[in-house]
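TICKET: design request
STATUS: open
ATTACHED STRUCTURE:
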C-alpha cells in the first residue's frame, strides 16, 4: 500500500527565524484521534530535528497525563490494596517482616514503572515468544531474534546455508544489534530457478490457507490507483503526497517567490514575528475555499530544534473518520501458500536442524538457541541441535477440545511420560495417550500433572535439570504429539498441569543456557551466587529485566501454545533464599525477611502470578515450598505471592519417617493430625499427598514396597503382615485425602500399591531400564493390587459424590494416642480411624455434632478392598446416643477393628 494513503507523521526542519522559530497557530488545542475501520491512529505525532529540546510546561503537563494513564493501566487501583493485608487479617504483629513486605510492594511498583518504559503494557513482557527465536514472516522470509549481550557477532548456522557463519548473520554496528543486546537476523527464502522476484519488495503470503490470491492479472499499480481513487476525494491528498508542500507554500506566501535563502537575509527583513504574520495571512484568506487552506497546522514552542506537532482540522478529521480504510485492496495483493511454494524454497525447511553462532571476547562458539521450541539435546555423545518445527498447514495439529472448567477441588494424578509404559524403555506421548489417560479417567482423578516434559539433556535427572525451557522433550515425541496428549486429556475432562522448574537451570553449555553468550552473567548470577550449593545447577538472575522477560514468556508460552491449565512451581525455596533452602527453619518470621532472602525472586513470583491470572483467568498455580513462606496463597494486593495452592511437603515426609523408623504401635495420633492439618490459616489452599515421585524415585521406596514388598516377593512373611501392610496403605491414603485442603495428589501407580521403586538408567545401575517403568498388569490379577486400586477409585468417587475436598476444613475432635484412634467431621461426614495394630474396639465412643442416624459409606476393611469384612452389614447404620463425648452432646458407639477406617454419613436427623 502507498505510504501516503494514511497520514500519521509530518516532519519539518527549518532554520530559526529570529528568536522565535516557526510558530503557527493551531486549529485546536487537543490531539485528535482518527479511526480507519477497526484501526486507530493519532493525528498529532511528534517529530524532532537533530536534537530534542527540554520539554516546555505544556508538554510536561501532557507527558505527565499520558504517563498517569499508562500507570493506571499497569497498576491496580490503590483502593483495596494493603501491602500487609494478610498480616492484618491473621493478626500477626511483626514489625520487621511487615516492613519487608512494604518495601517489597514499593519495589514492585518501581519494577512495573520501569517495565513501562520498554513495554506498551506490562503483559507484553510475557509475549516474548512472538518475536524471539525463529519465526516465519509473511514476506517470504524467516526472522530470527536472540538475546546475547556479551556477543560481538551473531549468525544462524543450518544445513540450508552449509553451516556457514557468514551466510545469515548480524554484527555489532550493522543493524541487528540494539542497546539491550538483542540480535536480529533475516533469512530470505530462496528464489527457485526460473522464477523472478516479486514486484512488491514487501509482498506478503498467507501460509495457512492454500489459495492463490494476488494472481488475478490486475497489476499492483492498478490496485493502488483504485484504492486511492476510492479513498481520497479529488485534491484531498495533495498535501500528503508531498510532506514539504505545506511549509513551502506558507514560506512563499509570507516572503514571496524571491524570499530570503540564508539566515543573514532572513534576519535583515524587518517583519513581525512568525505568529503575527500567520495571523495576518489567515485573516486575509478566511473567505477562500477550504482546498486553498492547508488541512494541517504546524505548531512549535518557539525554540531552536523544536519538536513540531501536527494539529488536524476537526472538519477534516470528522470526514476521515467516516471512511473505511481500503483494506480489501491490500488483501488482494496477498498471495497464498501455493504461490509461495511455486516461487520460493524455504530458507529453513520444516524439521531442519540449526544452531546459533556467536563471536565473543573468548572466541567463537555455537549454542542451541535459548528460545528454541523443539530440540535434539544430543544424548549418547551426539551433537545437540534445535529443530525448526513448522509443519505444513494440512499436517499441523488442529485442536478439537476446550479446557474443562476450573474445579472446586483437585484430584491430581502425577505422571512421568517416559516411565509410564510397562516395557523397560522410554515411552512416548502416544503410548501415554493410549494406556495411561483412560486409566486416570477410570481412577476418578480430574487432573494430571506432568513432570519431565520440558527438554532436558540427562534422562536420569527426571527432567528437573532443564536445558531448553521452551521445548517439549523430543524423547517422547514431537510438539504436535504433546498437543494431542493435552487435547485428548481435555476431551475426557482432565486438566493438564506442568511441574515447571524456574528455580534453577541445568549447567550444560552447548544445549543449555549456561555461559550462553560466552559471558557468565547473561541469564545467571556470577560467582558462587550463580551456582546451587548442592545440585550443581545454575541460579537465575531474577533482577535482570531480560531474564524476567524470558521466564514470564516461558510460562505464557506453555499456556498459549499447548493450552496448559496450570503449573506447580518446583522447589521455590531454592530460588527464594540465597542458601537455596538448605537451612534450619524454626518458623520465626525473622527467617523470612533476613539477609538470605532473594527479594528479586519474590518480585518475579508476584509478577508471574499477576500476569498469569490476568491473561488467563482460569489458570491454577501451585507453590512447592518446603519453608511454607507466609502469604504464599494470599492475594498480591494484600501482600501475598498470589498462588492458588501450596504443597504441604511435611505430610509425606512424616509418613516416610513413620514407616521407616517407627513401629506402628508407637505412632502418635496427635503428631499425625498436627502435620496433616498444617497451617490452618490457609487450610483450604493446601495440597496434600501421602507420596509423590520423591518417595519412589532414585534410591527411595514406595510405601507399598516398605509395607508389603517382601511379602509380594514370596518371602517367608506371613499373610497377617500382608493384611496389615495393605490396611495401613489404605488408611494412610484415606486420612491424607480427607483431612487436608481442597487438593490432593498421587503419583502414577501408587494408587494400586506399585511394589517397586523407580530408578532411571544411570551409571550406578549400568544404564538399565528395568525399574524405569510401571507394572500395569498387576491390576489384572485378583490380589492386593487390584483391591487397592478399587479402594483408591472409590476414595476419589467419595469426593465426586460427597464433595469432600471442597467442604470447609474438618473439625478434628478426637485424637487419642493411647487408643490410637482419630475422628473428625467434615460437613455431614464422620471419619474414624483406628491405627492400633492389634486392639479392636467393639463399641468405641466418638462425639458428633448432630443427633441422628449415621451410615457407613466407605469401609477400608471391606472384602472388595482386600479386608476381612469384620464389620457386618447390620452394623453399617448407627444411631447416636445422648452422651457428652469429645465436647459434643451426642456420640456414636461404633465397632472399630484394628487398622481400619470408616466414613459415616449423617442420613437422618433426630430432634431430641
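STATUS: resolved
RESOLUTION: sequence designed for all positions
ATTACHED SEQUENCE:
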Amino acid at each position: 500500500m502507498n505510504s501516503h494513503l494514511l497520514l500519521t507523521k509530518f516532519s519539518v526542519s527549518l532554520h530559526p527565524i529570529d528568536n522565535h522559530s516557526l510558530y503557527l497557530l493551531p486549529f485546536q488545542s487537543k490531539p485528535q484521534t482518527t479511526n480507519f475501520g477497526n484501526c486507530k491512529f493519532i493525528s498529532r505525532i511528534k517529530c524532532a530535528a537533530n536534537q530534542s529540546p527540554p520539554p516546555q510546561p505544556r508538554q510536561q503537563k501532557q507527558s505527565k497525563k499520558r504517563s498517569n494513564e499508562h500507570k493506571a493501566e499497569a497498576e491496580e487501583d490503590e483502593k483495596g490494596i494493603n501491602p500487609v493485608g494478610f498480616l492484618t487479617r491473621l493478626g500477626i504483629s511483626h514489625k520487621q517482616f511487615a516492613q519487608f513486605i512494604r518495601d517489597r510492594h514499593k519495589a514492585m511498583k518501581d519494577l512495573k514503572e520501569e517495565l513501562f518504559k520498554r513495554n506498551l503494557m506490562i503483559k507484553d513482557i510475557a509475549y516474548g515468544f512472538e518475536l524471539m527465536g525463529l519465526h516465519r514472516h509473511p514476506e517470504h522470509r524467516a526472522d530470527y531474534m536472540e538475546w546475547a549481550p556479551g556477543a560481538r557477532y551473531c549468525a544462524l548456522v543450518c544445513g540450508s546455508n552449509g553451516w556457514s557463519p557468514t551466510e545469515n548473520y548480524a554484527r555489532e554496528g550493522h543493524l541487528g544489534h540494539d542497546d539491550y543486546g538483542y540480535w536480529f537476523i533475516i533469512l530470505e527464502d530462496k528464489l527457485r530457478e526460473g522464477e523472478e522476484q516479486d514486484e512488491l519488495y514487501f509482498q506478503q503470503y498467507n501460509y495457512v490457507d492454500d489459495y492463490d490470491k494476488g494472481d488475478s492479472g490486475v497489476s499492483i499499480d492498478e490496485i493502488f490507483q483504485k484504492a486511492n481513487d476510492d479513498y481520497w476525494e479529488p485534491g484531498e491528498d495533495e498535501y500528503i503526497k508531498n510532506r514539504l508542500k505545506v511549509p513551502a507554500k506558507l514560506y512563499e506566501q509570507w516572503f514571496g517567490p524571491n524570499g530570503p535563502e540564508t539566515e543573514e537575509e532572513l534576519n535583515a527583513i524587518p517583519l513581525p514575528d512568525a505568529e503575527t504574520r500567520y495571523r495576518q495571512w489567515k485573516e486575509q484568506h478566511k473567505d477562500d475555499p477550504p482546498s486553498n487552506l492547508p488541512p494541517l497546522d504546524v505548531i512549535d514552542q518557539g525554540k531552536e530544534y523544536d519538536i513540531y506537532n501536527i494539529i488536524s482540522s476537526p472538519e477534516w478529521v470528522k470526514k476521515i473518520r467516516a471512511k473505511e480504510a481500503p483494506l480489501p485492496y491490500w488483501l488482494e495483493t496477498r498471495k497464498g501458500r501455493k504461490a509461495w511454494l511455486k516461487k520460493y524454497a524455504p530458507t529453513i525447511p520444516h524439521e531442519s536442524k540449526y544452531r546459533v553462532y556467536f563471536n565473543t571476547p573468548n572466541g567463537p562458539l555455537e549454542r542451541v538457541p535459548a528460545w528454541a521450541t523443539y530440540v535434539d539435546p544430543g544424548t549418547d555423545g551426539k551433537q545437540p541441535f534445535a529443530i525448526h518445527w513448522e509443519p505444513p498447514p494440512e499436517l499441523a495439529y488442529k485442536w478439537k477440545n476446550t479446557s474443562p472448567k476450573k474445579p472446586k477441588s483437585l484430584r491430581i494424578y502425577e505422571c512421568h511420560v517416559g516411565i509410564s509404559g510397562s516395557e523397560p524403555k522410554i515411552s512416548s506421548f502416544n503410548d501415554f495417550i493410549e494406556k495411561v489417560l483412560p486409566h486416570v479417567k477410570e481412577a476418578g482423578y480430574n487432573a494430571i500433572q506432568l513432570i519431565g516434559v520440558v527438554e532436558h539433556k540427562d534422562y536420569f535427572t527426571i527432567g528437573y535439570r532443564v536445558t531448553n525451557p521452551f521445548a517439549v522433550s523430543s524423547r517422547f515425541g514431537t510438539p504436535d504429539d504433546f498437543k494431542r496428549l493435552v487435547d485428548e486429556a481435555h476431551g475426557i475432562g482432565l486438566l493438564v498441569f506442568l511441574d515447571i522448574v524456574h528455580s534453577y537451570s541445568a549447567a550444560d553449555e552447548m544445549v543449555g543456557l549456561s555461559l550462553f553468550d560466552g559471558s557468565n552473567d547473561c541469564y545467571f548470577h556470577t560467582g558462587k551466587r550463580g551456582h546451587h550449593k548442592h545440585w550443581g545447577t545454575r541460579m537465575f538472575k531474577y533482577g535482570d529485566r531480560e531474564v524476567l522477560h524470558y521466564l514470564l514468556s516461558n510460562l505464557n508460552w506453555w499456556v498459549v501454545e499447548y493450552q496448559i491449565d496450570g503449573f506447580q512451581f518446583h522447589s521455590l525455596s531454592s530460588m527464594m533464599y540465597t542458601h537455596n533452602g538448605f537451612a534450619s527453619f524454626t518458623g520465626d518470621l525473622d527467617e523470612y525477611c533476613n539477609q538470605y532472602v532473594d527479594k528479586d525472586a519474590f518480585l518475579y513470583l508476584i509478577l508471574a502470578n499477576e500476569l498469569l491470572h490476568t491473561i488467563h483467568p482460569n489458570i491454577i498455580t501451585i507453590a512447592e515450598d518446603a519453608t511454607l513462606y507466609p502469604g504464599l496463597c494470599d492475594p498480591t494486593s494484600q501482600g501475598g505471592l498470589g498462588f492458588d495452592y501450596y504443597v504441604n511437603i511435611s505430610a509425606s515426609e512424616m509418613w516416610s519417617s513413620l514407616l521407616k523408623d517407627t513401629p506402628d504401635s508407637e505412632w502418635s495420633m496427635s503428631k499425625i493430625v498436627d502435620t496433616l492439618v498444617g497451617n490452618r490459616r490457609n487450610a483450604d489452599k493446601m495440597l496434600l499427598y501421602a507420596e509423590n515421585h520423591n518417595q519412589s524415585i532414585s534410591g527411595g521406596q514406595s510405601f507399598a514396597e516398605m509395607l508389603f514388598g517382601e511379602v509380594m516377593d514370596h518371602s517367608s512373611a506371613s499373610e497377617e503382615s500382608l493384611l496389615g501392610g495393605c490396611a495401613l496403605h489404605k488408611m494412610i491414603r484415606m486420612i491424607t485425602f480427607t483431612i487436608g485442603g481442597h487438593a490432593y495428589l498421587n503419583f502414577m501407580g501408587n494408587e494400586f500399591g506399585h511394589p517397586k521403586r523407580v530408578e532411571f538408567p544411570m551409571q550406578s545401575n549400568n544404564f538399565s531400564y528395568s525399574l524405569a517403568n510401571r507394572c500395569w498388569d498387576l491390576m489384572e490379577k485378583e490380589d492386593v493390587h487390584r483391591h487397592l486400586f478399587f479402594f483408591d477409585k472409590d476414595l476419589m468417587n467419595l469426593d465426586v459424590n460427597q464433595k469432600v475436598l471442597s467442604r470447609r476444613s474438618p473439625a478434628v475432635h478426637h485424637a487419642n494416642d493411647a487408643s490410637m484412634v482419630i475422628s473428625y467431621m467434615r460437613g455431614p461426614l464422620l471419619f474414624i480411624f483406628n491405627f492400633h495394630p492389634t486392639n479392636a474396639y467393639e463399641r468405641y465412643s466418638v462425639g458428633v455434632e448432630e443427633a441422628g442416624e449415621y451410615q457407613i459409606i466407605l469401609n477400608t476393611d471391606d472384602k472388595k478392598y482386600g479386608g476381612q469384612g469384620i464389620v457386618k452389614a447390620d452394623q453399617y447404620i448407627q444411631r447416636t446416643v445422648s452422651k457428652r463425648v469429645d465436647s459434643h452432646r451426642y456420640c456414636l458407639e461404633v465397632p472399630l477393628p484394628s487398622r481400619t477406617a470408616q466414613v459415616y454419613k449423617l442420613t437422618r436427623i433426630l430432634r431430641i
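CLOSING REMARK: The CA atoms of residues 307 and 757 lie 72 Å apart. Confidence is low (pLDDT under 50) at residues 1-77.
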